[in-house]
Amino acid sequence: MAATKKNSTSSESVTEMIKGSHEFKLKGYSLLKGIGVGKFIASETFNVGGYEWAIYFYPDGVDTQEHATVYVSVFVVLVSNANDVRAMFEFAMHDQRGQEEHFVLGHFNDTLGTQPHTLSKGEMWGIQRFYNRFHLEHSMYLIDDCLQVNCTVGVLPTIRDNSMTIELPESTIATSFGMLFEDEQSSDVTFCVGGNKFYAHKIVLAARSSVFKSQFFCGTDKVDREILVNEMEPKVFKALLHFIYKDTLIEDEELHLSVSSSMASISEWYVTKLLAAAHKYDLPRLKLMCESVLCKHISIGSVAEILVISDCYDATELKFICLQFSAENLNAVLKSNGFKHLKEKCPHLQLELLETVAAGIGCVSVDSDATTPEPNEIEAENTSYYPSSDEENHLGW
After folding, report:
1. Where would a tag sit more exposed on the chain, N or C end, judged by fewer CB atoms within 10 A?
2. Structural domains of the chain in order of their starting residue, each with its CATH number
3. What are the beta bridge partners of residue 164?
C-alpha cells in the first residue's frame, strides 16, 4: 500500500517596530522649581516613524494628587495630526558621572509592561511620579544644574480593517478625454485637410500645443470656424489630433513599417511626416515617439538620410544616435548610398560627423585593408533625395 504524502505549508508574519530617541537637556534646572503644578517645559519636536513627538517635563508635577507634587513628571505627546498611532515608550535620566547607572522606566525593559499604547493628536503618555524631586536634586542625574532626560519612542505599524476601506476605481479621465476626439457635436473648430474634415476643440488644442494657442488666442483677428490645412496628408493630421487627445501614437501598421528596398525613401514615410507635423505644432513628446520609431530603422544604408531628417526637424535625440552610429561605423557609412547627398545638401552634417569622430564618442570601425575614399569619390548606387532650403515641398507640406 502506497504511503500517503502529507502536504504542509507555513507562513510568517513579522511586525517591525520603528524606534528613535531624543535627548532633552534642561540647563538651569534650579530656576524651574516653583513654576507651578501642571506647568511644563517642552522639548523641540522630533520625528519617529513618520510622526512628530515632543517631551513635556513637569518640574512641580503634573497634578495635585496626594504626594504627587513631591515628584517630577515626564510625558511624551503626539504632535502630528494623526489618529490611532500605536507606540511604546521609555524615559531615562543619564548618570552624568559616567558610571552608566542610568535611571530607566518604560516598556522596553518591562518596568512598565510591554503593552503598546494608542494615541491621537495632542494625547500624551507618561509617568506622573517619575522621580522624587528631593532625591533628584541630590543625585548623579543632576550635575552643574543640568538634567538630561532621554525619551525613546517605538512606533508600530497601524493595523487597519480592510473591510472598512473603499476601493477606488481606476481613473477614466484619459478615456473620457479621448472620447472628445472627432466629436462633431461639441467641437468649435473644423480643419479641412485634403478634402477631409476633422472636428476639434480650440481649448484642447491650445492646452497641448503652443502653436495652436498662439493661433487661436494670441491674435487680434477672429479665427474662422473652418481652417484649411495645406501641404499635409489627412492621415498625418488625423494622427496628430489622435496624439493631442489621447497622448498615444495612432494604431496604424503603416506607421511602423520596416525598411525594405521596395519602399519609398525615408523622407516619404508616414512616421517622418508625422515627425515634421509634431515639429511644426510644437509637440515634443510626439516628436520623441516618432524619433523612437525611426531609431529602430537606423542601419548603414539608412543612417545618412535619417541624420538629415533629424537635423531638419531638430530631433536632437535621434540626431545624436545617428552621429554616434555613423562614427562607430565610419568606413561603411562613407561608402553608403546616402553619404554623397548628405555632403552636397547638408555639408554642416559632414563636419558634425567628423567632430563626433574626433571627440571619440564611438569606437570607429575601419577596415584595415581598405582605403577610405575621399567623400567626392564616393559613388551612390541608388540616388536618394534630401530637401534643401528651397525644396521644402518635397516632404508633402
Report:
1. N
2. 18-156 (2.60.210.10), 173-249 (3.30.710.10), 252-397 (1.25.40.420)
3. none
